[in-house]
Amino acid sequence: MSKVFITCALPYANGPTHLGHLRSTYIPADIYARYRRLRGDDVLFVCATDEHGTPIAVKAESEGLKPIEVATRYNEMIKRDLEECDISFDSFTRTTDDLHYEIAQNFFLKLYEKGYIYEKDIKQLYCNSCQRFLPDRYVEGICPHCGGEGARGDHCESCGRHLEPLQLEDPVCMVCGSEPVVRDSRHYFFRLSQFQDKLMEWIGESDMPSNVKNYALQWLREGLRDWILTRDMDWGVPVPLEGNDGKIIYVWGEAFLGYISSAAAWSRKTGKPWREYWDAGAVHFIGKDIIYHHAIFWPALLMAYGCRIPENIIAGEYLSLEGRKMSTSKNWVVWTSDFLERFHKDLLRYYLTVNAPLTRDTDFSWDDFQRRVNDELADVLGNFLHRTFSFTGRFFDGRVPEPSELTAEDEEFLNSIRRAPDTVGELLENFQFRDAMMSVIKLAKKGNKYFNDQEPWRAIKESPERASTCLHLCNLLAANLGKLLMPFMPSSAGRVLSIMNMEDEPWGFHELEAGRVIERARPLFSKIPDEVIEKEKSKLIKEEDSVSETVTIDDFAALDIRVGVIRSAERIEGSDKLLKLMIDVGEREMQVVAGLAEKYSPEDLLERKVTVLANLKPAKLFGVKSEGMVLATGESLNILDPGDAGIGERIM
Q1: What pLDDT band is residue 397 in, cutting at 50, 70 and 90?
Q2: What average pLDDT does the segment 244-264 reach?
Q3: 3-105+250-339: CATH, from 3.90.79.10, 3.30.460.30, 3.40.50.620, 3.40.50.300
């Protein structure tokens, strides 16, 4: 029996969970944890709410509350969401627990004593009206790179560039609106740059998924800089050194330790040492937006401390909604609690697992959700199970019949059942959750075909022994489907096993004795009517693009829109969103800076035909000249395909 330490990224306690959180992190982690337990491994599966940082402090200030009150409100919502989705944590705690403070401060002190943390005076923005230094999220201004308004002190939403508060033009305090001044403040830095070579070696030799490895290597090739580890504010874990009142450990310097403090809390309850699980190998499940933190900063902190670094990091890509990026501020989102009010949790676990591999961005579509539930769960899986149980009750008095001598077709069907646990298990071992789930559905399809081919409704009259064999093997498949479904849809799997009067058993192929009582069963899955889906779609609030004024045909004629082909593409250093493209539009090549990097890699775009606005006034983005615009849809970034039009052809 192997030990394994499994974590989920700590949900931030400034809002409830939505479907994107579940898809990227919590459902795949739970599938893996449940599988490892069924395999007989000793699993410690932990998480906690991340409750410090400026967003919670800002929200609390705007609502006239204390930060702990805001964090507690959302901790309760998040915990309820995850419990109702059957996420099977062994420990779920909070980073505001006393034990977390103790562990985080001791960790900081040890790094300080070992010389990995040093002091340095830096310039920071200070608000005279509020009489305090302003952490990054307390400052707003104009981005110095793209000119975007409303850029925060840590990030520009317009161009994706990481910022420092002092870089902002025309900065203002987000609390009182006054203009801050610059003052000196002493802070503590972590010597991240010292771990450049060790991290490069570790990541290069690791078996981490390519989306994690490639992203981390991109940052490492650009070179690491030491990281500021403290903030001037009251909400957080205080710096445990004398003379540092009003300074806290930066949230990314202590939130990681929520994995450890949650495990330590579990140890206090159970008496089992959490360190044995960590040292056996930790697997982190996270979203793609925090790959940098988990693949670079966190392992560097562990190397400095002297701990074993994670065994693997599994990062789920983004989930959009009906072709558009999810936006909580615009209510373009499906909240977990709202979904569970109207649909069974296993429908959510199923759909978010099968609609795309975890390592690829995907979209939640209500129509596709309905199709998969109706076609795959109801018509395939549910239909096979219901027919098997109903025929057993009708023709064999609700008991599994004895099989007769097996034919070649029976043997082939039996062997497919026997092979299934190994096939599904191997896929789960490699974190291929979609393929694993679909292999179970394919097995149910095979069951339906076998059932139809054997025609037990006819065989019961003409050849009762053939009907007995058919129903014996179909019940055998049903029993094993119940076992195979357990990691993915534990509630539905439990219903199958209950109908068959079976207990939870270890992972693997399970025989089925004749005579076992099969209870009367209702259909496991119901089809979702069209009107239900239409109602859900109508709830989404679309913010239509407004047009301030109409344009004339002459205005449109002034636009030189042409068909081009991308001859070269490369990333623009420092931006997560922008690519530099050289586009052939027939009589010339033009350089275009396009905000496509969140969806397309440079390799994806080479020799791709695009539609280009070719007479746009040149401008500089990130210091790179851009002479035109690639036409694409809004937030989904789908490039407009010119089809068979020739290179250089003008669009009229």
Answers
A1: very high
A2: 95
A3: 3.40.50.620
pTM: 0.82
Q: How far is residue 406 CA from its own chain's centroid?
A: 46
Show binding-site residues for Zn(2+).
143, 146, 156, 159
Task: Please give the mean pLDDT across all residues of the chain.
Answer: 92
**Type of residue found at 193:** S
Question: Which residues contact residue 633 at a Cβ distance below 8 angstroms, ignoring those fewer than 6 apart?
Answer: 323, 640
**Residues 30-66: tens digit of each pLDDT:** 999 999 999 999 999 999 999 999 889 988 988 999 9
Residues 232/126, Cβ–Cβ less than 8 Å: no
Determine contact, residues 363/320, Cβ cutoff 8 Å. yes
Instruction: Note the pLDDT of residue 554.
Output: 60
DSSP state of 503: -
Task: Give kind and range of the element (H or E) at residue 563.
Answer: strand 561-571
The domain spans of the chain are 3-105+250-339, 114-248, 365-499, 553-651
Q: Residue 143, SS3?
A: coil
Contact 603, 586 (CB under 8 A): no
Q: Residue 363: what pLDDT?
A: 95
Burial (CB count within 10 angstroms: exposed 0-12, middle 13-18, buried 19+), residue 299 = buried
Cross-strand partners of 580: 570, 593
Contact 35, 428 (CB under 8 A): yes
Tens of pLDDT, residues 525-570:
999 999 999 999 998 855 434 333 556 666 676 788 999 999 989 8
Q: Which residue has the higher pLDDT, 501 or 164?
A: 501
- Report the pLDDT averaged over residues 346-368: 95
CATH of 553-651, one of 2.40.50.140, 1.20.120.160, 3.30.565.10, 2.40.50.100: 2.40.50.140
pLDDT for the residue 546: 34
Query: Homologous superfamily of 365-499 in CATH?
Result: Isoleucyl-tRNA Synthetase; Domain 1 (1.10.730.10)
Sign of the dihedral defined by the CA atoms of residues 200, 202, 207, 209, in that order: negative
Could you tell me which residues are annotated as the binding site for ATP? 328
Give the three-state DSSP class for 471.
helix
Q: Which residues in 114-125 are b (16+ Cβ under 10 Å) and which e? A: eebbeeeeeebb
Query: Around Cβ 479, how many Cβ atoms within 10 Å?
Result: 25
Residue with tokens 């919590």: 26
One-letter identity of residue 587: E
**Helix extents (H) in 325-365:** 336-342, 345-354
- DSSP-assigned letter for residue 384: H
The tokens for 108 are: 């900081």
- Helix 345-354, helix 433-454: angle, nearest 10: 110
Structure tokens at 581: 């493209």
Binding residues are: 143, 146, 156, 159, 328
State residue 547's pLDDT score.
Answer: 36
The per-residue pLDDT for range 134-185, each reduced to its tens digit, is: 878 789 999 998 888 888 888 887 777 778 889 999 999 887 888 999 999 8
Tell me what pLDDT residue 138 has.
84
Question: In what helix (H) or strand (E) does residue 369 lie, and over which residues does it extend?
Answer: helix 366-372
Which CATH number, 2.40.70.10, 2.170.220.10, 3.40.50.2300, 3.40.50.720, labels domain 114-248?
Answer: 2.170.220.10
Retrieve residue 531's tokens.
């009107």
The residue with tokens 């596709």 is 368
